[in-house]
Amino acid sequence: VLPRLPIVLCHGLFGFDKLGPSSIPYLQIHYWGGIEEALQKLGAKVVVTKVPRTGCIRACAQVLHQILETNLSGSNVNLLAHSMGGLDCRYLITHLPTEKSIVRTLTTIATPHHGSPFMDWSSNKKSFNILISFNLPNFNLSLPNINLSNISLYSLASIPQTTYTILHPITRALIQAFDTPAYSNLTTDYCVNYFSKSTPNNPSVAYYSYGASTNVPIWSPLYFPYQIIKEKEGPNDGLVSVKSAQWGKYMGTVECDHWDLTNRWRLKIGSSFDPVEFYLNVATFLATEGY
């Protein structure tokens, strides 16, 4: 079924449209790797948005509003949003209704609608200090007396410094990366007790959602947030739990991690998940529903 309405792709935290020199397209990295082109080949008009990479929900929604009014005047549109982009879109729909374009659907993909326990943990100064207290000069690949499959961030304080060397640089960098104006908008308290209560669904918009879940390997930068979220909310993709991803009509859970969903990095050997095919299926579903 050919797509009926324009599809607007909305990125999440630390997202972008493309990076690299425009004069050398082959050196560019696209947030939606191959997805925009595949949707266009299917027959859809596609708009790839770019909002502040670490902006708060309100600031990002304001930019989305301007993009819709400028580029899609007179059109009904489908919003497809990854991660925090789904919260930006919900704010846009509820608080910044567009006059020149009409949002008909919002499909969120691994969006933390109910917040993230990892963001709760990251906002805890005591937890952060546990990580930055390890000042080790080099990597030590020997990790004696530790069962790596059972490592939890809640037990890091008891891990000997000599066994923590390889884990520390990755974890510290990841935690520091999330120390942005946006992270406070992603805690469970904010999302559940403030954002969702003040941002009700628009009854004229259809809301769909997908979640993701996988067993994140120890060598992945997502391993530590994966463990924190797993202990609190169960199955997750390394940043967002299946539970938190559910909003509106839940369409199902795909087997992949949070970063696989945008097809930027294809490093997972043996994975059956095809992100391009996934988005084509989403677009086809929307078309069969009349959108």
Low-confidence stretches: 15-30, 126-168
Helix content: 25-40%
Q: What is the mean predicted local confidence, pLDDT?
A: 79
User: What's the CATH first level of the domain at 7-116 and 196-288?
Assistant: Alpha Beta
Q: At the third CATH level, what is the topology name of the domain at 7-116 and 196-288?
A: Rossmann fold
CATH superfamily placement of the domain at 7-116 and 196-288: Alpha/Beta hydrolase fold, catalytic domain
- Beta-strand residue fraction: 5-15%
Order of helices and strands: EEEHEHEHEHHHHHEHHEH
Class inferred from helices and paired strands? alpha/beta
Shape: globular
The strand order across the widest sheet is: 4-1-5-6-7-8
- Tell me the distance between the termini: 11 Å
Radius of gyration: 20 Å
Report the strand count: 8
Based on the structure given, which CATH architecture of the domain at 7-116 and 196-288 is correct?
3-Layer(aba) Sandwich
Main beta sheet strand tally, sense and closure: 6 strands, parallel
The count of helical stretches stands at: 11
